[in-house]
Amino acid sequence: MQQSRQILERLMIERGESYSQISILLGRNRSYLQQFIKRGTPRRLSESDRKILASHFGIAEELLAGGLRQAIGSQGPTFRTVRCLLLGAKGEAPRPGVNLGAVNVDPAWLHQMGVGAEHISFCRIVDDAMAPTLVTGDEIMIDHSDIHIRKKAELFALRLDRIVMIRRASLSANRRLSILADKLPPIHDVDPKRADIIGRVIWQARKLLQ
Q: What is the pTM of this model?
C-alpha cells in the first residue's frame, strides 16, 4: 500500500489540494488522509473511499487498491503510473502538472525510450493544425525534462500567449524562436520569454482506420 500512499500524495500536490480537503470529501475527520499517508493508519482504504478518490482524481480505482503492480502470469512486470494531460478544444489547457488521469507503462519500454516515468506525460491531440504529422485523436508522449529548443525544428508542447499548442520549434542564430505548424502560417522572430516550453514530443500513436 506504500505505493498507493505515494500516488495520493503526488496527486494532491499536483492539484494543490490539502489532506483536510480530501478527508472532508470522504466524509472523514480532517486528519484522516494525513494519517493514512504519513502514519499508515488505516492500513487500507475502504472500497467506498477508493471509489470516491478514483472518481475525484480521474484514475483507476485499482491503483489505490494494490499499488502499481499488475501481474501478467506469475512473473509479470511492474508497471509505472504516468499522468495524462488534456488539451482543450481550442488549444486551451490546464497548467502543466495537473493530473487528469493516468496510464500504466512498462518501465523497460521507458528505459528504451531513454526517459523516466517521473518526467513524462501522455496527451491526446484535439485539432489538425499539425496534420498530417499529428491529427485529431493521436496520442503523444511528452518529455518534460527536455525543454531546450535547438536550431533544428523539433516537436514541442509549449504555451504561447496563454495558449497551449503542439508545434515544431527552432532557435535562430540570434536566439529568437520560430514556431511552425503544418496547416497554419509560421510565427517567426518570437522572443523566447513569451514561450513557456512544456516538453518535447518523443512518441506518437495513431489508430489505424479500416
A: 0.58
